[in-house]
Amino acid sequence: MEATVSTTKKQSNFVPMAIVATLFFILGFATWLNGSLMPYLKQILDLTPLQASLILFSFYIAVTFTAVPSAIIIKKVGYKNGMALGMAVMMLAGFLYVPAAKTQVFALFLFAQLVMGIGQTLLQTAVNPYVVRIGPEESAAARVSVMGILNKSAGVLAPMVFTALILSNFTGLVGKDLSQEEIDQMANSLIFPYIGMALFIGVLALAVKFSPLPELIDDDTQAHEKGQVKAALARPNLALGVLALFVYVAVEVIAGDTIGTFALALGVEKYSVMTSYTMVCMVVGYALGIVLIPRVLSQQTALTSSAILGSVLTLAIVFGDAQSAMIANALLVPFGGVALPDPLLLIAVLGFANAIVWPAVWPLALSGLGKLTSVGSGLLIMGIAGGAFGPLFWGLASGSDGGAQGQQSAYLVMLPCYLFILFYAIKGHKMTSWK
After folding, report:
1. Residue 201 phi/psi, 5° resolution?
2. Which pairs count as long-range contacts for 288-294, CB under 8 Å and 24+ apart, including other chains?
């Protein structure tokens, strides 16, 4: 579906771009906040790794069943109203955490996560076209890169804010059985920060609603011809590309959002900030990708390198010594950092390996699709559902006792994911026929 700005009047794009940039930051902040929320709820609700993984599952599964309805809603109400509506749903989700925290009912937290995921899906569906259409076509790639960095940078900040506002008042509680009074205090500490976030998102929704953000008009209003999805999936490079993005998002979310839960099991006091380590590595990888691709590295070479590095790191994490802090002693402690276990830091480095997979798979998967490109793009977006299932498989593989050893071994579920990405980089994207 092609979209263009509805006005032909020449005007500065600064204000619209600033609004869109803010929305991408909000999306990143709300998404990567899960990395802190997951171990926090695991501690106060005494969850198993599998139960904790449902916190991520309920958030990411929203993409699977609300992507198409979101597109229909936006077609009816417009892109700008779609953004405001998406944020209104996110605001509602923020308020839902209040009764969840008060009652400490796990199902209410899962429902709040689901509503947050629905709001995010609607907002993403509305805001992404603006990045391409709000300015000159020849500079669209640069705008996409900037928005990506903003999104991941929010992932660095979100765990720090969570730790400062919620966890800073609770020390010495890791690794001990909590009293009901301590559980109540920790649960109640979620209330005001989430109310604040909900109110901020609500104000931002009103600001977008009445902002000078130009409306987009769909140039191609004709429905897709019957059988276009089937025709698109008949192209192996696209079908395998959808699977590659599915397993990629699975490992991305495992690396970003389970690291805090594993840190909690290892007895790390500030476990809620660990997602920031992964996101810092991801931002570095993203920036290097912008500089090196395609000037120095081809998309295929970059994807191959990422898959190999991810596979090696996975094996190092699973078979590494959780009692060793050799990496931290060499790289962090001399600069005032914490002596974190080696496997924990290796999980963070996965962020570097994962950073350029998404932008590398897209052009390879869409190559040669022609008029099927828009259908192919929609199918690729569905790969985000991998974020729901990756942590779920990790939780299942962790065992029922929730111990650190079981969680460490469970990271082996990432190996087949990276091996499939490697297959796609070497052969899958070149396939033109299933025969």
Report:
1. -65, -35
2. 288/355, 288/356, 289/355, 289/356, 289/359, 289/360, 290/145, 293/356, 293/359, 293/360
**Among candidates 364, 136, 153, which has minimal Cα distance to 241?**
364
Q: What are the residues facing 4 on neighbouring strands?
A: 217
Q: Which region holds residue 8: left if phi is over 0, alpha if psi is between -120 and 50, else beta?
A: alpha
Domains observed in the chain: 11-214 (1.20.1250.20), 227-430 (1.20.1250.20)
Cα gap 85→79, rounded to integer Å: 10
Residue 362, class by beta-carbon neighbours within 10 Å (0-12 exposed, 13-18 middle, 19+ buried)? middle
Asked if residue 39 has a cis previous peptide bond (ω within 30° of 0), the answer is no
Instruction: Write out pLDDT tens, residues 158-169.
Output: 999 998 988 877
Tens digits of per-residue pLDDT, 287-325?
888 888 778 888 889 899 999 999 999 999 999 999 999
| Joined tokens for residue 360 | 């590398």
Res. 2: pLDDT tops 70: no
* 263-268 long-range Cβ contacts below 8 angstroms, 24+ apart: 263/39, 263/340, 263/344, 264/39, 264/42, 264/43, 264/174, 265/402, 265/403, 265/404, 265/407, 266/322, 266/341, 266/344, 266/404, 267/174, 267/175, 268/174, 268/338, 268/340, 268/341, 268/344
User: Cα separation of 109 and 42, whole Å?
Assistant: 12
CA–CA distances in Å: residue 345 to residues 152, 181, 332, 405: 18, 33, 10, 16
Quote the CA–CA distance of 258 and 261 in Å, as a whole number.
Answer: 5
Q: What is the pTM of this model?
A: 0.87
CB–CB of 90/120 below 8 Å? Answer: yes
In 264-322, where do the E strands start and end? Answer: none
CA–CA distance, 245 with 237 (Å, rounded to integer): 12
Among candidate residues 410, 291, 300, 279, the one with its CA nearest the CA of residue 350:
279
